[in-house]
Amino acid sequence: MTGFPIFVRELVAYARRPRTYVFQSVFLALLVLVLIPLWPPSGQGRSGAEIAETGGLIFQFGGYLQVILLALLAPATTANAITLEKDKKTLDVLLLSDAGPFAIVWGKFLSRLFNLAFLLFLTVPLLFALLTLGGVGAKAIGVQFAILLAFAVFGAGIGVLLSTILHKTSSVLMVGYGILAAILGGPGLVEQLGLYSVPPGQYALGAAYASPLYDMIYLFRTSSFVATESFPLHWWVCPAWCLAGGLVCVTVAGFLLPYATSIDRILSFRTVFERFDAMTERALGIFRRKAPEGAPRPTVGTGNPIYWKETSINTIGRFRYWWRANLALLAFMGISYLAFKPMLGKIEFHKVTVAVLGGLIMLLLTVIAATTVSSEREDSSLILLATTPVECATYVKGKVAGILRNTMFLIALPFVHVAIFIGVGVIHPASFFLLMFAIPAAAATAVIQAIFVSLLFPTTLRAIMAAILILVLESALPLICCLPSFNLPMSCYFFVEPVGGLGQAFAATSQGNYLVAMGLAVVFSALTQIGFSVVIYSLISSGFDRYIGRAA
User: What's the whole-model pTM score?
Assistant: First the structure.
């Protein structure tokens, strides 16, 4: 039941992996890059109150940043907890051992939780240093640490449960990120839907109960939740359910582990989808023109064979999967319009919607492209490809073109949304043209650099996490230079403007140069991304021996 042998095995294996120390270094580096510039310099005649205020600001931003980093790292560290055993065909062997299912899941859960908790303990020196500035109390530090640790327990528990019931590591990552994002941002979404209302500048106490992010805001801005409180009295509610929820998830995973293979088949919905495909094909067959007798058949084997493989053999490239995904996106888009009908006339809703779509584009393209080579390496088909006459340039071109074809409907969704509401007079037409420069360049860059990362890392999980890490680091570039399209969600948010907003740019006002500045910024950023992509593309298409052969 304790899973101590599994815990020790996982802990030792994790300690030997280079990415363990990469995660720790990146975690600390992000904290340093964000927080150290805020640190008050000595001297300069600053009062004690100003220094204390700065210390409180560092403490506040550090808390927000750690919540977001935990939401990114918790699924990443637990996504392959059980799926790795499934891929290696060792799960049945573990179940037949004396360990038992509960020992397996608890051992894997505790080892991953230990590494997440160790990341939090790395920040302890910084927290003690904040005490010297004033403005931060030891009690507030303890509350923040409890919120973060409980959230780590919940994130690790969700990851282990999803890894038990889902077959692919990438599926665990996507579903895990979706669940944690819904929990962190759920209260804000519910408020935007108008299900409850609060005065401007105030928050509902229930938001702090439901979301660790809002619980952190409750700690920093207590009076915005309860006017009569100077320190949060109910801060423990969210950590309590996070702790309980994480432990319940691990326990449920223990019960389900012996049936993991059967659950995989059930959750795949393969039979249902195949019947749906057959019904749709019969329905579409009525309108399909039959080729006349004696007509020449299309030539087989011409064109780029890698492109054919990506669009015809790979799972997401197969036509039935491709149109299913597009149909699901279209249905989700229509349902969202019905759900958010009262907000369709507000420009803020459209800004957030296009920004979310931009984030989904970058995340999905990165995950899909990062798995494209590593998955072939894992199933040993890359070695076979490396021995064929296919040139490296052909391989890379086929991969890039195939992935962009498979995801082109997703890339088009922001333009469809903006075009619809340009037609009804809510969004300014210039927004469409600004997005035309930002989204295609960002999408192509995400695909090319993720393929490059997939060539360098031996496993799918490592490739995915490395590509996402690069994406996160690039998203900080607009903070230090004029490269807005490197952070596509931010660009999409600021490029969507209302009718009469960007229209002022043509008037002789103080905003007269706004449109020109935005246009120049996005053109410069897009050209920079294109140049960056060309450099990476030329590197990975330079020869099999340098990259693809070595990857095999």
Answer: 0.64
